[in-house]
Amino acid sequence: MYTKKKLLAALLASALAAGLLPTSACAASDYTTANATLVTLTDSSATAKGKYTGYEIDGTDVSITAAGTYVFSGDCDNGSITVKKGVTGVTIVLNGLTLTNDDSAAITLNKTAEASLIAASGTTNTVADTEGSNDENAAVKVKSGAALAISGTGTLTVDGNAKNGIKGAADAVITVAEVKLSINAADDGLSCDDELNITGGTIYSEKGCGDAVKASPDTDNTENPDTTSLGNVTISGGTLTLNATEDGVQADGDLTISGGTFHVKTNGGHTTALTDDSASCKGFKAGGALTVTGGTLTVDSADDALHAGTDVTISGGTLTLATGDDGV
Question: How confident is the model at residue 64, as a pLDDT?
């Protein structure tokens, strides 16, 4: 059963994929101070002007406190964008933004917040944390119960230098639609504990993340184990080029693929000899059921190409598998 948060995330993702949002969400030239708030970041300051006033500025840190459309541009070597706890109806547009944060995430959705993140048409954007970050979680962080929908026809590069690229916590939902998304991470690339949905776009993870795409609840946390997140990954479209040192796509729950084009390589491919019996370098891995009804899957994996903890169902699609262990 959908919670309100998950229903809103699903509806927003559908609207983004179908092009039902205003055209201003796709073209940077359509933005004016009459229909959005324009925020410019530099190394020393953040300035804002426009329609919406639901924001706070502290140096180069911008907090969004109310619904609205906020368009970010500029170059800042130590700043942040944060959607405050419980704030919904937020659209963050990246219109030629390069943003790094020294001690935490560059972009954060606090608990139960809901936002769409759009890379504006014709723009190139980069968000990153640093190796010395005190908050060793992600460059884009989605906290417990929050929902983030990523889309746009521009380009977004996410560099998770401390740990993960994009990370959703317990009961969070992340949806990726039409966007060119490139992720580099010290650990996992695109990860969400509860639900991760990919409906389109082009996703690159070419420098070798741990797990490239992942949904894995933190059940091993002895103080506060996550017993509510589903750990599901659902992919219905897009082009994914994933280079991982561990699993290409991992879901601790169910992994469902109905469309998309995949080029997945794990731990150097099928010619790599695994010396650690506990290593997991699978192409597609589900703790629960793995279901493939469509798509084109090309896998070169050091471990199993397709693997499930319960059932594997393949009723469609085109599979080309090279594996150092089991094909399926």
Answer: 98
